[in-house]
Amino acid sequence: MTIAYLPGSACPPDDVPPYEPWEGQDVVLTEAAVAGRRAAGWIRSLPGPPVPGPVGAWLAGALPDAVETAMGSLDPAACDRTDPDGRVVDGTGGVDAATMSTLAVMPCVLSEVDWLTPDQQVRLLAVASVVTGTVRRLADDPGSAITYGVARLCGALDHATPTA
Question: What is the pTM of this model?
Answer without folding.
Answer: 0.85
